[in-house]
Task: inverse folding
């Protein structure tokens, strides 16, 4: 099977609060939205934000809990962008989990939770190239 | 900010069980691994599987719970691949959540949880093109 992820779908309680974080905070534009879901076209995959009850019904799985044992990362191109973006996300309904500091592997990173407790790492990692169209490649 | 996700990091309890699902089930090859993390190079982003305690320490966030309110999706190119892949993943330590059936939007999909309760949707969606190198684009 191709090493490919098509969608990351996050359960959300309130689409307006979620959009404030993703549109106002990250500055991203939806590619589609209706009363229960918003899709953002990302770097070769979709980010979906879907009312949690609808997601649970689609998965046929109840008892979804939070915070989940996962994180998403958005890598930035300059070290000084990390703390600045963390603060902008916190100002748009996010909750700062960890301010920007240096991980053992180098670079700089911090974490912020979105309005539904989904964790985002904001990272500067000079070892991982980002192409002009946003493709990120592993490096050491 | 660029509409870009660099990494999806999933918390795992046992790397060997997790690898059985991702390597044996999906047939994916790690790009890097050590005693606490495995990275897979995906379509312009990384999938990371990291011991949950290490992820929680890095996020400075305790009390991670499961199942989380999110799902990941892997889209396949043919309708008959959906049920077949669900079964292969279930045979490699996954738990079937929903067998393949037709969603309201068309196509075919089912859900399987990985050994750490992270949900994967396996979908055939003829409206969403997949490029040769795995980039997925929104469509209606």
Result:
């Amino acid at each position: 099977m191709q090493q490919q992820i098509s969608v990351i779908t996050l359960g959300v309680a309130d689409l307006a609060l979620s959009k404030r974080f993703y549109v106002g905070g990250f500055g991203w534009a939806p590619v589609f939205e209706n009363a229960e879901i918003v899709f953002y076209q990302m770097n070769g995959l979709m980010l979906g934000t879907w009312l949690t009850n609808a997601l649970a019904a689609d998965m046929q799985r109840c008892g979804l809990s939070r915070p989940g044992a996962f994180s998403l990362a958005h890598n930035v191109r300059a070290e000084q962008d990390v703390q600045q973006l963390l603060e902008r996300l916190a100002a748009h309904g996010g909750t700062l989990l960890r301010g920007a500091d240096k991980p053992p592997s180098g670079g700089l990173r911090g974490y912020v939770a979105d309005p539904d407790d989904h964790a985002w790492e904001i990272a500067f990692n000079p070892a991982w190239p980002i192409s002009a169209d946003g493709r990120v490649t592993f490096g050491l």
In short: Chain A has a mean pLDDT of 97. The domain at 7-124 of chain A is CATH 3.10.180.10 (2,3-Dihydroxybiphenyl 1,2-Dioxygenase; domain 1). The CA atoms of residues 13 and 99 of chain A lie 26 Å apart.
